[in-house]
Amino acid sequence: MSKQYEKETICVQAGWQPKNGEPRVLPIYQSTTFKYETSEQMGRLFDLEEAGYFYTRLQNPTNDYVAAKICELEGGVAAMLTSSGQAANYYAVFNICEAGSHVVLSSTVYGGTFNLLTCTMKKMGIECTVVDPDADEETLSGAFRENTRCVLAETIANPALVVLDIEKFARLAHSHHVPLIVDNTFATPINCNPFAWGADIITHSTTKYMDGHAMSVGGCIVDSGNFDWTAYPEKFPGLCTPDESYHGITYTEKFGKAAYITKATSQLMRDLGSIQAPQNAFLLNVGLETLPLRMERHCYNAQKVAEYLEAHEKVAWVNYPGLKSSKYYDLAQKYMPDGTCGVIAFGLKGGREAAVRMMDKLKLAAIVTHVADVRTCVLHPASHTHRQMNDEQLVEAGVAPDLIRLSVGIENVRDIIADLEQALAQAD
Predict the structure, then answer these.
(1) Any residues with CB less than 8 A from the CB of 340 and at least 6 apart, and which?
(2) For 271-319, how does the pLDDT look when each residue is reduced to its tens digit (9 = 90+)?
(3) Which residues are within 8 A (CB) of 359 and not within 5 positions of it... i.e. 6 or more apart?
(4) Which pTM does this prediction carry?
(5) Count of CB atoms within 10 A of residue 317's CB?
(6) 3-state secondary structure of 186
């Protein structure tokens, strides 16, 4: 867009800008291929000498317009869509790591992300040191090594709801000459601006609040353009030395601030192929148009539900950053003064068994392997999303055996509370 607009306007107007006589709504470019008049034109695209489309595995216009909208929401310089949030985190890290590299990882990240870094990428020769995000800077600094290439954390941890001290982590990462990658899925760019606090790269599972309707799986990576890769060329050879698979192009020299995303698109997407389907990107764009409205309602409802649960005699504990009793309340006020998210973590005095009984009695809220859409849903992470972790790892991740993850939807909050009330009454 030609000028800076507020986020509500960006959500509706950014990305697709129709010209005279073109469709008002973003078209779905449902095509694998794109036609050119000459072989020479196609060749220039393959050499990265010209921008354009030739195969949807690499780029697609529908996807790029939606990525541009998310990029503008986050205040970045370039963005790309991926097939899932998992793919986004994988690409974000692998784009600057290789066998022999090392990553510093917050212990409270989503279980799938934890498994990706500590198990799967370990098999690829990429080591990982897990750190407590609440640790002091001196302790955290001890996790860095000579071969550390990035730090990965979440603005609001899923499901522990730890609020990241973004400035602290950015300061640490930069003091060791590496970028901070932040997964901003739960807060969304509506409630948190990680780039403003020093983060360098942002990832999203667009499957969650951005889509908002549990219709399409997807992910996104946004680059701030602020990290100077050329200052540490020995750490980031993939960006700062010639890529022989593209006739010796050096990404930082040829693409400047767009180097990181260009490499991820032209190299990783080319070889690994985790592209988001154009149909899914279209659905994501529809969700983005109402994201500010939904986040406001999610946060309002979650605050009311958290206060209700905190006062209930059968509830042992409640963790929600909007509660003044939360240890993360001050950080939430600093980084997300207008609200955090719609997810609440809590436990019952009856322990794990009572939690299971209560969840089974819910009528409005559904037990699903999902979070952050318009419908209220519930999950027991120790039994579901984090079941690959042992007890020690669960504790490190902030996932207690009795933890219930409640994703508060946008239904009438009185109905949500009434559903919890009748279920809790049967949880003995």
Answers:
(1) 156, 161, 163, 186, 187, 191, 299, 302, 320, 321, 322, 332
(2) 999 999 999 999 999 999 999 999 999 999 999 999 999 999 999 999 9
(3) 367, 378, 380, 404, 423
(4) 0.94
(5) 15
(6) coil
